[in-house]
């Protein structure tokens, strides 16, 4: 069973040309899929429909076997990893990761166990007392991912997470995201307009153009095309 199934998804804003036009993609459990294409091709709209921040005009979105078209974002159990990481600056790394568990009124014992497990996986266990302002970009990204892991989110969604970084840091973070995603084995949808990211990060690449899915293939298949 696919982790995320998009069936003939359409999005129209007002009565204009569809921003997303009849897109169907099945994403396997643990797969890393990149949505790529030029500005305005509909990739953010598609991602926002998956998370539930935007209504679907027609088509079906199925996550973990359940149709979620009408479910609120929090009922979809997905984790959006934002470009600016959206960490709480006054809270320690520990409490930033613990935050969703605190909201869910988890016991201190459960919080501690899950935060320690996640921070070990993400190699943050030495930094639990620090504040986000004292961390590197890569460490901040990992804290954001930690917050998603403790919630047992069904998938990670990234919207151009590296676009504000300089080239060197972008390269490092790219490597780090790929490594962590493989280690965690969590289904991931990643939006970018950057060809290098698209060709190096994902298991498969979905190329969008004016709202239409042009290609859906592995980087190797795309690379070997004439
Ligand atoms: P991308 O993320 O690939 O840059 P978007 O999904 O943001 O593309 O936009 C796809 C199309 O939908 C564009 O033509 C854009 O102008 C239009 N669009 C996006 N958001 C809105 C909105 N809230 N209202 C009207 N049109 C929108
Ligand atoms: P103590 O001060 O005796 O450690 P606490 O109630 O403050 O007792 O914390 C209990 C456990 O929860 C600690 O042993 C620690 O592992 C964990 N813990 C709680 N809050 C934090 C935090 N901000 N940073 C790191 N660990 C924490």
UniProtKB/TrEMBL annotation:
Residues 4-226 form the ABC transporter domain. The keyword DNA repair does not apply. One of its GO terms (molecular function) is ATP binding. The keyword Repeat does not apply. Keywords: ATP-binding, Cell membrane, Membrane, Nucleotide-binding, Sugar transport, Translocase, Transport. This is Multiple sugar transport system ATP-binding protein.
């Amino acid at each position: 069973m696919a982790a995320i199934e998009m069936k003939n998804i359409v999005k129209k804003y007002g009565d204009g040309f569809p921003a997303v036009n009849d897109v169907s993609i099945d994403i396997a459990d643990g797969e890393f899929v990149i949505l790529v294409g030029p500005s305005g091709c509909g990739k953010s709209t598609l991602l926002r429909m998956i998370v539930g921040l935007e209504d679907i005009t027609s088509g079906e979105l199925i996550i973990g076997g359940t149709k979620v078209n009408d479910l609120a974002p929090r009922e979809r159990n997905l984790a959006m990893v934002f470009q600016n990481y959206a960490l709480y600056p006054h809270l320690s790394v520990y409490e930033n990761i613990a935050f969703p568990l605190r909201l869910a009124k988890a016991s201190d014992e459960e919080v501690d166990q899950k935060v320690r497990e996640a921070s070990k996986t993400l190699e943050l266990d030495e930094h639990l007392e620090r504040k986000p302002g004292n961390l590197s970009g890569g460490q901040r990204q990992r804290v954001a991912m930690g917050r998603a892991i403790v919630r047992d989110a069904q998938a990670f969604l990234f919207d151009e997470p590296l676009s504000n970084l300089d080239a060197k840091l972008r390269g490092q973070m790219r490597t780090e995201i790929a490594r962590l995603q493989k280690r965690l084995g969590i289904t991931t949808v990643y939006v970018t307009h950057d060809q290098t990211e698209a060709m190096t990060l994902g298991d498969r690449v979905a190329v969008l153009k004016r709202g239409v899915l042009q290609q859906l293939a592995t980087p190797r298949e795309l690379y070997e095309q004439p």
